[in-house]
Amino acid sequence: MKINNRFIVIVATIVALGGLLMGFDASVISGVNKFVQIDFNLTDLELGFSVSSLTIVAALAMMVAGPLSDKYGRKTLLRICAVIFFISAIGSALAPNFTLFLILRMLGGIGVGASLILAPMYIAEIAPPDQRGKLVSFNQLNIVLGISLAFFSNFYILSLANSDLAWVDALGIKENNWRWMLGVEAVPAVLYFFGLYLVPRSPRWLLMKKREREAYEVMCRFRSEEEAKADIEAVRENLEKDKDKEKASLFEIFKPAFGLVLTIGLVIGILQQITGINSVFFYAPMIFEQSGIGTDASFIQAILVGLTNLVFTILAMLLIDKLGRKPLLLIGVGGIAIFMGVLAYGFSTATYSLTQEKLEMISDTEVKAQLSPLVGMPFANDVEYKNACKEILGETKAKQFESEVITAAITMNPMLILIGILGFVACFAISLGPVMWVLFSELFPLKIRGVAISFVGFINSAVSAGVQFVFPWELSTLGSSMTFLIYGLFAVAGLVFIIIKVPETKGKSLEELEKQLVKQ
Fold first, then answer.
1. Which among 25, 200, 195 has a CA at the least distance from the CA of 122?
2. CA distances (Å), 173 to each of 45, 161, 163, 232, 364, in order?
3. Which three-class secondary structure state does DSSP give residue 379?
4. pTM for the structure as a whole
5. Helix boundaries (H) for 275-362
6. Residues 113-143: pLDDT tens digits?
7. Cα–Cα dist 93/226, whole Å
8. With b meaning 16 or more CB within 10 Å and e meaning fewer, what string describes 106-120?
9. What is the rounded CA–CA span in Å between residue 466 and residue 416?
10. Which of 284, 426, 428, 444 could bridge 312 with an S-S bond, Cβ 3.0-4.6 Å?
11. Residues near 475 by Cβ (< 8 Å), separated by ≥ 6?
């Protein structure tokens, strides 16, 4: 059994690399968006769409990945995902214009959505029951690792671009830093593609295709012969039962009997995204630049965001079955409201005023000369100051030098912003991040579970895309303080809902929960 366990861990680790690629692909844009906006001369809404488009396509891919994997196999689809990640990484890195960049980023969304469904599905189908939770959690852990790796990779490439190394100049990293940030994803994509050669086909899929002998041989690589025979028989029986079951339609989940569980699922699914988590993950350096710390420091602080997310995700995995789902939600969402308040307060206390001494901090001589009329003029908030700079410099140059221009004029405590962002990410990672999916698997009765989770998952992704889309516009139009205040108010409303409506599901059987929550 030791050999089998080792092989299970190896296979689960390889398959979970799909989660790492997904996390990397989704978050690498955080370091890219500022440079892309300048190079392609994008409006704030165009930038928002270039970020959110991946999530939109991923949501659609999630809906078709399951049925396609039933037809062609989990392993086959995962290898296609690896190819998609590779093409998207290289293609978007080389894209000569915004249209091609957008198309190739959207292509990556297919890989993101499909791998989000397929990797945990495959692992669940090969894992022994007593190890399933731990092994499936490899995928979530790899997603978080991928996010952290993207932040670190972006910072490392930015550091290289600012160095004087000869090989950096030879490779064009200085002039094409954002292109290298995107292209480096091709390396783990290649490793994933070839690593999947070591992965056998799912035994459940083989049984679906009536390849029983092959399914048994695969199962024996993960179990003893006796366990393999028992598991094969159990899968066969379940497949026979499933044949006779009438699949629930989408309309069935809207029946009055399921009103409470659907409401809880929708509110938690929307709350997870509308409190702004992907604004932080996908725009972290941009947010930190608003506090006046400069581009390099903003990329360093983005790494701290990834590490905080990783540590508190692991902590949530350790606590969710001990403390329960509702306590984690109460602690986390309450913390989100507090830390969003800290961010809103921090940015509201900022003042903006250029002095001649501060003006000299700006590296570009022409920009210095153009901004000299603003010396001595006080501005009440970031929106007023940035609009004044845009009027003088123009949209493109104002974006290009935004970090330097803000740093030269702002007076505030940037530590408040760092504390607010890290506190928010920690609270999210210990609550809404992992708890939402656990609740989904427990709240919905078996009859509608599949279609209900698909529906609320789609709404969750749609809200995520909307939040990502409008965030650059919010910063420019509403300002940093108001943007984070809105997120905090959503968290307060969500906290009230959780207190009143969300039940504790820990330690209760699915049948008990159905009796409690579904009208008979």
1. 200
2. 28, 6, 10, 53, 21
3. strand
4. 0.81
5. 277-289, 295-319, 325-348, 356-359
6. 888 888 888 887 787 766 666 677 777 788 8
7. 51
8. bbbbbbbbbbbbbbb
9. 27
10. 426
11. 44, 286, 290, 382, 483
